[in-house]
Amino acid sequence: MRVLALLLCLTAAAWATVYTTAASGDWLGDSTWGGGGHPVAGDTAVFNGAFNVTADSTVIACAVCSAATYTGTFALGTYRLNVSGNFTWKDDGDTAFMTIGTSTDSGLVVLGDITIGTRGKITCGASKVYAGGSWIAADGTFSYGTSTVSFIATTGGKTINKGRFYNVTFNGVGGEWSLTTNHTEVYQNILFTNGTLNLNTRNFYCQTANSQTITMGAFTLNIGASPSSFISNTQKSLVVGTGATVTVSTGAMTLGALTINGTGTFACSDAASISTYNNIVITSANWTPGTSTLTQRYYDAHTITCNQPLYNYTASAGGGTTTLANDLLVQNNCTISGALALSTFSLFVGGNFAKTGTFTANTGTVTFIDLTKTSTISGSSTFNVLGCTTSGKTVKFTNGTTQTVGSFTSTGESGSRVMLTNDTGTNTWAISDATGTNTASYTNISYSAASGGALFNALASDSCTVTNSTGWTTGISAENPLLLIGD
Known about the structure:
By secondary structure, this protein is mainly beta.
């Protein structure tokens, strides 16, 4: 069988012919190629001279197609050209043109590389182009019209250079593509079906011409390191579901909505920047925040549904309010420069709580966690319930701010107290509550002014200390009456 296969290959090679254009005419017209036949599968088609060639059959084919010295026009029209090897359209000299109309069949199908040189010009209508290898183009050489370019390689090592597309599809099981230039752009729709795309410190732009939800299939999108970015602005939403993977280290993403569900993997290994302009849903256990910052920008009201931890979270400035749809854990810093509402849910913060925008507590709770981090509360806010129940935790309040609470609790342990103090260590931070009782146990309190009418109790029985403060009661135990610090 091996001998037979080798003979067949040698026979096919012997039959392969190089055909060069010699006159204007149809592809199947022998005179177009000098009178000795026309290219078929396995042959090489060389476009030469200023001759115009027109496809005249549903399917035409060749093994290699090139137009290095061509200055005419090849009109594929509504037919299909199958190229089993590489397709090279014009390297230099005068311009060579190719037109692909509305593809009723499959348009241009190239299993090798597609190279469009600086003097090549391919103009599409509602065409279909299939690339089985790399895409190598110069600026302005591919006029995409309303075409769809599909990358169908099933092996790795493919590249995309100067990619500007109307619609684009990545659908090659085992295929892997890497960007080699910035500003790869898609004007309309993207399909990530099968394969791997590496941004390779380059930018991939999705224009804002239309709204689209990009639901990834068995696909891996490697954003990698800065300055690489996947940018869709406000119109493209991304769904990373079962079988899909997104990886990013210090690169960036800008999206409409972001959904990570099922067993979808979204892994941040460093300080990635992820921005959205719509709802966020993160329910997959395969979300890894790294030291990333997730920023939720907005024009209208929207929500965040997240049962996985975030590292840094920002509710950014805009025209609407972000509302929690469940409890939210922020391992590091929570920044509110826009508007954030808790509804009935709890916000857990390991690092800083920085508010310059609007914070609406509703009936929710804010709790500071993680004794390895010092938390600073900046900006004056109104909390429903504010507390720290992590022993050994230090919480600092910005000088001159007032935190208004419905309830406040600070709970440490013997030998591992909570520390409540000013961010400068000298001036006063204020806390206010109109009614009820607020309790601190195993807590050191300094430079605090408590007011508003409610009781602020620092339990002596739990070894609280209160220094340079007013409005706190201390000495509370079964044996001792109340003492009001500062009175």
